[in-house]
Amino acid sequence: MARVFVYGTLKKGQPNYKHMINTAKGLAKFQGRGRTVEKYPLVIAGKYNIPYMLNIPGTGHHVAGEIYSVDDQMLQFLDEFEGCPDMYQRTLMSIEVVEWEGKGGAGEARAAAEGVVECFVYSTTTYPPEWVGLPYHDSYDSSGKHGLSYVLRESR
User: Which of 38, 66, 80, 82 is catalytic?
Assistant: First the structure.
């Protein structure tokens, strides 16, 4: 099992969460909530209002999201879904645990107690330079006050 941190449309209550709970795509077990240890710019960009975490450590905010434990099948699905490695790149990042529900072995309990876990995160280094000038967010909600509702793939 791998640990994945999601900060955008795959979170609970967001437009693509349905994929996280679709066992035909693999298993994803909610572990808790967290935020990036380093600051990153989280922007909403493009004509479909997609959330992107720009891989510029030290700039922006500590980005909030959810931590999942996923099997290889779900990780492969997420790679395809996220357009990895062209649109997003899957990299390991340190995530500060804010709230932990995960149940597991001693390693899981120790990681949660220490307050920081390593997770795969889909961020991007391949973006137009003007995205750096967009507003930065510390958390994402498709129906947030930014007014930039995400456009589902089936509606594009």
Answer: 82
